[in-house]
């Protein structure tokens, strides 16, 4: 395995459209790095540039310390797993797995041994004599992973490999792939992985670190907990987390004790948030996750009064949509802690958990309530 480095990498298409804007990224040997972001953010384009399927128009890509800008895909030491599996339909699973080694003219006994090893690791030994059309989606994806694994590349590249599977299979394959990565590391064969997805659940559960992208730029690179607890900017804050973070317009007033105004309601800033602020008073973007808005008795100090617009019952929890003045907010409450199911028109009091409030600069959208964003 090898480390991967991107230095000021750019991609500009004909007509002057710039898809990737000078990104820098380091992926350590044996690390599982996830590229995540909305459709059109250039995460797949970035992956294809690493693979050599797209030419870069600026910067450097290094694999194992070697610049590979002008190296053809087959010589870069990478293996790629695609969204559509890309199995050869006329070949049985055994031949699909062995194809890359046959191209390299490896001895037959080596190919047979590697095929047996990989099929055992991925639990597809009973599928070796089937054609791709005889496989389920999950089985086909395991074969695709096996075909990449058998070549023992320097870097594994995954391009939204689970997006064609149903929810249950996606969950199962997430566990299989992450378990395989951990197992290889424990066996002294660490796999360097770059995994592209638009699904934040995949990103948060699979990645050692996550690179959040927007419009061809990197917004933040950090481990899952840091992204959730310490987002560097409003985009990361709103993209990571389900339901997404409440991001509303507000006003910061620095009196004897700082205050935040939500619409027509004001609360004092306590619990250490005031000491972390690095912004002047005035218009601000306030961020608070639905899980960090507590339903409290009326009249509780530091609470906001809101009118319920709808409530979604999800078994163990309820997602409550409210309006605080004209501002929409979502709160997540544990079902067992509510005396009754909220209904449209009900008035509830919500208290933000002070340490969990985030404040974002109105112009730059940078998080100004953190001393260190974890970048």
TrEMBL record:
Pfam families per record: ABC_tran (PF00005), TOBE_2 (PF08402)
* Gene3D superfamilies listed in its UniProt record: 2.40.50.100, Nucleic acid-binding proteins (2.40.50.140), P-loop containing nucleotide triphosphate hydrolases (3.40.50.300)
Q: Which residues form the ABC transporter domain?
A: 4-240
Q: Name one GO molecular function term.
A: ATP binding
* Keyword ATP-binding carried by entry: yes
Q: Which protein is depicted?
A: ABC transporter ATP-binding protein
Keywords from the named record: ATP-binding, Nucleotide-binding, Transport
Family membership: Belongs to the ABC transporter superfamily.
Query: Which classification does the entry list for the species?
Result: Bacteria, Pseudomonadati, Pseudomonadota, Alphaproteobacteria, Hyphomicrobiales
Q: Does the record bear ATP-binding in its keywords?
A: yes
